[in-house]
Amino acid sequence: MPSTPRLTLLAVTLSLSWGTLARAETVTVRRGETLTKIARRYGCTLPQLKDANGLKKDALRAGQKLEIPPDCKHALPDDAPPLKVKKLTHEVLVDETLEEIALRYGMQIDALKAKNAAALKRGLKPGMKLKVEAADDGRAQRKIAYTIESGDTLGSIARKFGVSVRDLQRMNPKKKADRLRVGDKLVVYKEGRSSPSQSVGRPQAGRLIDGELFKDVPGTWMKSPTTAWGTNETVRALKGAIAEVRRKMPKVHDLTIGDISRKEGGFLAPHKSHQSGIDADIGFYHRGQPKIGPRAFLDGTVVGLDLEATWLLISALIGDREDASNVEYMFIGYPVQEKLYKWALEKGIPESKLAWYFQYPKGSRAMSGVIRHEPSHMNHIHIRWKCPPSDKNCL
Ligand SMILES: [Zn+2]
Question: Which of 9, 45, 77, 316 has the largest count of CB atoms under 10 Å?
């Protein structure tokens, strides 16, 4: 944890780290919002906001995108209408100033001081926890523990987390760049929602950074709600496919969703994979089930499959173009593949597409098709997505 050296309030510190915070933010205009109201919310002047967006008039329409220039104060003027704010905790970094912290959360510096009057009596110290408020929990600070692996450098770790090397050093004041050892722990503070997920390593030996929890998705039932963390891409793909089935067949039952990954990935019993946010277990659609769904994985060779809905699901996941598909593999027991294959063939799906999709009828050991046999997959589908192109450390 951060040591407690005297804090140096260097102007250069402020400008350096502000550089990493000062991204132009884009907001979408909601019905009834005026330019004045938006300017006030972000601490911009009207001309500032108009210039940044090339606006000649003050009129706005709902849905319009506005860029908030980074030089707006991001602080609420005293007469601003109250916003819903979230109470958060901020852990002070080495060399961090009250101004920086206030700017980060869009707070008035006086309000920040008032909220933390007792703690600040002894001065601002690294590692100390301050009470802060923000209108957007995307600015919430999250603490990630990272274990150094062979081949890591400060630079490669900084890139992995999307922070600067300087900020990484501020977060770990006791670590010397030339003395990093495999197995050492580093602490990384990241902003909340704004950070994209990253799949790291292999599905059989990997982890997940800034994963997204698959939850509250219409038409689903979660078998294991706490181990349903995936990459943003995994969650988006799964949501999209389920929504597509429901658009075409609104009466389907809720689909049972099993394990994806743990919050930070890693070993998840009883699986070999599911370690890096790019694997998911999902049920089949069955006939004659209540709308709330079967609430378990049912054997597709025993309980009547809804072949049409299950076909829609797998084709929404795999897609129509081989060169654009994000699915690496899908594991489905061979006898279930047979049922789906024969149904699709009868419905006139081209054989070329079926040969791309299915291992069937080439045998349960054939190295062919996106959909492969796995003995324990008579009652569910295991999807393995390809590495998201942005995740450089995904294998
Ligand atoms: Zn699985």
Answer: 316
**pLDDT per position as a tens digit, 332-360:** 999 999 999 999 999 999 999 999 999 99
pTM over 0.90: no
Range list for CATH 3.30.1380.10 in the chain: 212-385
Which residues keep their CB under 5 angstroms from ion ligand 1? 281, 382
Q: 276 CA distance to ligand 1 centroid (A)?
A: 12
Distance 258 CA to ligand 1 centre (A): 8
CATH for 1-7+84-195 is 3.10.350.10
Say whether domain 212-385 belongs to CATH 1.10.443.10.
Answer: no
Which residues fall within 8 angstroms of residue 248, CB to CB, at 6 or more apart?
Answer: 312
